[in-house]
Fold this protein.
Amino acid sequence: MEEKGKGSERWGGAISNLTEMSSNLESLQKLLLKKAVFVDEETFARASLTAEQARTIKILQQRVETLERELDAAITAAARARSEKRQAEAAQKAAELRTQEITRELENTTKVFELHMEELRAKQEEIDKRDNDIKLLEAIIQTLGGKESSSIRG
């Protein structure tokens, strides 16, 4: 920003010098037009050169003003781009954090699911074991019940 201030100062000084020179040249040109009826070739050549220089100065001054506006627009665009970049980086960081959080949640859910599955398998094994025990007891009961029926009949 400091360099911009120095550059603006120099451009401002140059523009004021050009403006002053332009006014002086215009005054001289008006004076020549009003008071001079005849001038020698050298004076006419100087006046013509002065008028041409005045026109050139005016064109250059306009060009400087245009360039200053373009520079200001470029600086503003660059500032906006930096701001948008910072916002995009912040959004990306937030998205990355959210992704990590979701990943942790999924890992925790997976662990809980695995524990529940282990518990369900253990319960299923216990149920299967009890079913087998019940079937065995039923077979024993049928066997004993069948012998009792035979001994009562006989």
Q: What stands out?
A: The chain has a mean pLDDT of 86. The helical segments are 2-35, 41-153. The chain has one domain: 2-153.
